[in-house]
Amino acid sequence: MEVRVTTSTDGAARDRFDARPVFVFSTPPTPNGDLHLGHLSGPYLGADVFVRFQRMRGVTAWHVTGSDDYQSYVVECARREGREPAETAANYSAEIAATLRLMDIEPDQYTVTDADPAYRDGLREFFSRLVRSGSVAPREDPALVDAATGAYLYEVEVSGDCPHCGDPTGGNICEECGEPNVCADLAEPRSAQSDAPPRQVNLTRHSLPLHEFRADVAAHHRLGRVPARLKELAARLFARDRLDIPVTHPSTWGVPPLEQGADGQVIWVWPEMAYGFLHGIESLGRRLGRDWRADSPQADWKIVHFFGYDNSFYHAILYPALYRLAHPDWNPDIDYHVNEFLLLEGAKFSTSRRHAIWGKEILGPHSVDAVRFFLSRARSEGRRTNFERGEYDTVLKETLIGAWQRWLNDLGARIAERHGGAAPEPGVWTPEHTAFLRRLGTRLSALTDSLGADGFSLNQAAETLDGIVQDAARFSSLESAVKGIEDWKDQTRTATALELAAAQLLARSAAPVMPRFAARLAGALGAPPPADWPQAVTLVPPGTRIDLARQVFFGAEPDEQPQAPPAPAAAAPLLPWLRGLVRSTLQLADDEPVDHRGLVELGMESL
Ligand SMILES: [Zn+2]
Q1: Cβ(512)–Cβ(505) under 8 Å?
Q2: What is the mean pLDDT of residues 259-284?
Q3: 265: helix, strand or coil
Q4: How many angstroms separate the alpha carbon of residue 164 from the centre of ligand 1?
Q5: What is the average per-residue pLDDT within 226-240?
Q6: What is the signed CA dihedral for 187, 30, 265, 111, rounded to 10 degrees?
Q7: Least buried of 152, 167, 379, 387, by fewest C-beta within 10 Å?
Q8: What whole-number distance in Å separates Cα of residue 74 and Cα of residue 564?
Q9: Is the pLDDT score of 233 beyond 60?
Q10: How far is the CA of 166 from the centre of ligand 1 (A)?
Q11: Edge-first strand listing for the sheet containing 342-344
Q12: Nearest to 71 by CA among 112, 107, 35
């Protein structure tokens, strides 16, 4: 029976990316600490791989992020460290940028909000647009203050039980259910400043009646890629009668609005970020010579957001309403990619409590691709995943060294031994050979889908990359039964050519996830670093020099890298240097015979 796939009207206006500027945002990190593996595995690796893949497909995509300096967490951290908030922000903002570089994540635009001279004026103008729309206006509502100091309590300064799900939460947003609160509605509120129960007061702040935007948000959610989890959150929120969201708060850290009646208050950092994204596009455009303006967003802009679930309310519900008010003629076309929390030994990673594995603890030029592969695999997509210390070492040892490197080295050794170190010309094809080639094609289309804009999933991409190696190692093992048998040598060289095709596919298709590994593997196969996404599985041109046998792709520190051997004078089957190298790499005795023996047979596991 034929199965028909039909598409609904949702997303019918979904333009292809090809001709549009694509701005891929990872949530600007808060500079109250360095980045840990939970952060890195979420928005930052996601946005980086997304952009690398799109560029290989010929799309003009940019990764835009920055430092979200005006978070209240920065004030709290500065107080703990005995510094001014600006110092704390500048310090961690620089640390964060350095950690991103160690992860090979180099955003095209990194806005530091407290250090950008044009930012304040642009933000104030955006806020004035909201006020001029008539929807954002001063409104008196209950608020909490510390009973002893009288200080205004919100966000990190207050905690209690979520009025919506009952779980313990901080002020303003619940990380468990994703719903906003207004602090005064917390059950059993506690102040971070004193032990006395907080006092409730009435306070006038600028406020947005978000409940009036249900239809606008729903229309927005039909336009782009909006995960069901975000639509469900919107349905929960808009079931409330009223949803008055204060958009200014009493604070000395942040940008005060120009409007009257907001004395001693600043524009709340979350609505601020809605402007920050547009400001980032303008700043990027200035450097690229493009006339993109924050006060005049364009219909052809494609925006893609990567963020953790606890930011869902802001990105996917609050900002579309703010854009509707500030730029009523703009219909923002936004795709959303949301990740859940990564747990560390059963508990949430936490910057403020320093329960984390920090990027700098584990990242270096020789580990970065293994870390990127590991985090792609472990990333919390659609469910929380747990990270145990030691798990990374297991994946490195058993998967990347024990399977990937072992197969590639063994393939290189066989090519050196039987084909003089050059890619063989395929001979006779068997049914299993064509089946293997088709299977590689299936892997390529699976990867194309899992790195693509609609089905993006690093979990699936990592699994498929590993699948290429598993397929190839299995194929190699089955075909090895006839190796060295004269009658079947034309079939054997086809099998070897196909294994090389698998290695070439791995080099090209691993490039977005593991750029250094991909470039080195491509180099070992006689090709430049992969720049284009492969359209099909192809054979390595016969005669190409193959330099796989001695490559250390994973797990080596710089001083453990083998010295480059002198270039072989002739294509001898197995040159003395290779013999010596095999012995030293595998720590074999000097008299151990290595000719005509596979690396596996020689105990390759010892690496
Ligand atoms: Zn909750």
Answers
A1: no
A2: 95
A3: strand
A4: 5
A5: 97
A6: -150
A7: 167
A8: 49
A9: yes
A10: 6
A11: 347-348, 342-344, 385-387
A12: 112
Distance 32 CA to ligand 1 centre (A): 24
Q: What Å distances lie between residue 375 and 406, 460, 472, CA to CA?
A: 22, 12, 23
CA distances for 319 relative to 26, 270, 594, angstroms? 15, 9, 65
Helix ranges (DSSP H) in 420-570:
431-451, 458-479, 489-509, 515-524
Gap from CA of 167 to ligand 1 centroid (Å):
6
CA 185–ligand 1 middle distance (angstroms): 12
Q: How far is CA 182 from CA 200, 207, 255, 466, in A?
A: 12, 11, 21, 46
Of 76, 130, 46, the C-alpha closest to 380 is: 46
Are the C-beta atoms of residues 362 and 392 closer than 8 Å to each other? yes
Is residue 130 within 8 Å of 247, Cβ to Cβ?
Answer: yes
Torsion-angle region of residue 456: left (phi > 0), alpha (psi -120 to 50) or beta?
Answer: beta
Backbone φ, ψ for residue 505 (5° rounding): -60, -40
Domains of the chain, CATH where assigned: 22-363 (3.40.50.620), 391-606 (1.10.730.10)
Distance CA 297, CA 278 (A): 7
Q: Ligand 1 centre and the CA of 194: distance in Å? A: 24
Is pLDDT above 80 for 603? no
Looking at residue 310, its amino acid is D
Which range among 229-243, 288-302, 384-398, 410-424 shows the weakest confidence by mean pLDDT? 384-398
Tokens at 39, concatenated: 């952060």
Residue 301 CA to ligand 1 center (angstroms) comes to 34
Supply the pLDDT for residue 351: 77
The pLDDT of residue 14? 53
Q: What's the gap in Å between 196 CA and the centre of ligand 1?
A: 24
**Contact partners, residue 353, CB within 8 Å, separation at least 6:** none
C-alpha 186 to ligand 1 mean position (Å)? 10
- Residue 337 has φ and ψ, to the nearest 5°, of -125, 115
Could you give the percent of the chain with pLDDT greater than 70?
Answer: 89
CB contact at 8 A, 123 and 255: yes
- Span from the CA of 170 to the centroid of ligand 1 (angstroms): 10
Rounded mean pLDDT, 439-465? 98
Q: Give residue 602's pLDDT.
A: 53
In angstroms, the Cα distances linking 263 to 205, 275, 349, 499 are 10, 22, 37, 70
